[in-house]
Amino acid sequence: MTDHTALVLFSGGQDSTTCLAWALDRFDHVETVGFHYGQRHAVELETRPKILARLRAGNPLWGERLGDDHMLRLDLLKEIGGTSLTEDTAIEMGKTGLPTTFVPGRNLLFFTAAAAVAYRRGLKHLVGGMCETDYSGYPDCRDDTLKSLQVTLNLGMETRFVIETPLMWLDKAATFATAQALGGDAFLDLIIEETHTCYLGDRTHRHAWGYGCGTCPACELRANGWAKFTAAAP
Ligand code: ZN
């Protein structure tokens, strides 16, 4: 395992793309991992290769550091079902007090699978875009959950992985500002044009903040973050 290496959980969304730039800025060698889990919309997965190509072409240092991309199937999440991200059901507050977009165990599975890839590839830092600030109350995005998981993974694999969540305490406006600080206006433009957040998979409506339906909770968060970010810009 080499110190200055990372594996980024990369979905093609705004948060994970910002995390990828954060890792490329810091580590000598960075690989990416993505998951098919029977999500209703494959839009994010279609944007992933476009984002990787633009990152390679747009920044020579990042291009040099960016290594292999790994795609894994976690179809069991769809088999288990019962969420609005894997089935065509309403996005609303569920009986448990969590939105129906919550996929139980998803981030735990993602990090466990990512750690297994990192183990094979000799990569030390596992980077994810989880966030407690603007989140929808998902318990597997919590800092405590991921710190505890880091301990479990290291015990279970006899390793010294470090789970990194650079966006944990940022709101969406600060995430836009982070992207700009890391890669300037060119990277901010990539975030707007190519990353996908909308729960409904809408790529037909273009807003100042990017593509999406504009009304689902994910679009609302992104739109509000963009409004706050641009209001604060000089
Ligand atoms: Zn939307």
What key attributes describe this structure?
8 helices, 15% strand, alpha/beta, 234 residues, five-stranded parallel β-sheet, Rossmann fold, 47% helix, binds zinc ion
Structure notes:
By secondary structure, the protein is α/β, with parallel strands linked by helices. It has a single domain (2-197), classed as HUPs (Rossmann fold). It contains eight helices and seven strands; from the N terminus they run βαβααβααβαβαββα. The protein has helices spanning 14-26, 43-58, 60-65, 76-80, 106-121, 143-157, 172-194, 217-232, and strands at 2-9, 29-36, 66-73, 123-127, 162-164, 206-207, 210-211. The strands form two sheets. It has a five-stranded parallel beta sheet, with helices on both faces. Strand 1, helix 1 and strand 2 (29-36) form a beta-alpha-beta unit. Helix 1 packs across helix 7 (172-194). The protein is globular, with a radius of gyration of 17 Å. The N and C termini lie far apart (43 Å). The model has no long low-confidence stretch (mean pLDDT 90). The structure holds zinc ion. Zinc ion binds at residues 198-200, 202, 212-213, 216, 218-219. Zinc ion (ZN) binds next to helix 8.
